[in-house]
Amino acid sequence: MERLYGLFPDYARDLKINLQNVLKQAELTEQQTWGTAVASAIASRNPQLTVAVLTQAGQHLSPEAMSAAKSAAAIMGMNNIYYRFQHLSENKRYAEIPARLRMQAIRSHGSDPLDFELWCTAVSAINGCGACVTSHENVLRGKGVTEETILAAIRIASVIHGAAAVLDAEATGVGSGL
Predict the structure, then answer these.
(1) Does the residue 177 lie in any domain?
(2) DSSP assignment string, 122-133
(3) Alpha-carbon span 39 to 60, nearest angstrom
(4) pLDDT tens digits, residue range 97-110?
(5) Furthest C-alpha separation in the chain
(6) CATH code where residue 158 lies
(7) DSSP class of 155
């Protein structure tokens, strides 16, 4: 992660500092923190950031939790597009037609179910799917997870997504004025 922090230009100093801080929030367990970081990095699609986060997360997550966080990113990458379309379309008939998409990872991820819901919520926020954010947030709240815990995960998602955008821009030379 230290090498990654060195890639942030001056204009993104706030993001660099925020990235360092959001990975130490008291509202989240270590597994929740690093699982959210893994799922968010994968959803944000920057290779450098993803490698750095997954490498660091490997020191904090069990293999099962690492796999579950990756599954959350993968399954929500699909679901967010499908359900966001349903939500955005004015044709209510789409919601009546079965999805016919395999989603076994939601039930058989092998990690803590609440942590998995938290990771799905973070990825859904990154992907902008209001229907999925609402669904997963309702499950979390129904199981007693506090708003502070949920927002701590969303903080991680927002900072990682912003960091990915900066790193993408810098890799293309846009950020350096080329």
Answers:
(1) no
(2) HHHHHHT-HHHH
(3) 14
(4) 999 988 888 778 78
(5) 50
(6) 1.20.1290.10
(7) H
> pTM for the complete prediction?
0.93
Name residues whose C-beta falls within 8 Å of residue 114's C-beta, 6 or more positions apart in sequence: 140, 143, 145
Q: From 12, 11, 95, 10, select the one nearest 49 (Cα to Cα).
A: 12
The C-alpha atoms of residue 45 and residue 83 are separated, in whole angstroms, by: 20
Let me know how long the chain is. 178
| Count of other CB atoms within 10 angstroms of residue 112 | 17
Give the count of domains, the chain.
Answer: 1
List, by residue number, the catalytic residues. Answer: 129, 132
- The yes-or-no verdict on residue 139 having pLDDT over 90 is yes
Residue 106 belongs to some domain of the structure = no
Counting other chains too, the contacts that 137-145 makes at CB distance below 8 Å and 24 or more residues apart are 140/114, 143/114, 143/117, 145/114, 145/117, 145/118
Alpha helical stretches, state H, the chain: 2-5, 13-22, 30-44, 47-57, 63-88, 113-127, 130-142, 147-172
pLDDT surpasses 90 at 76: yes
**What is the average per-residue pLDDT within 124-143?**
97
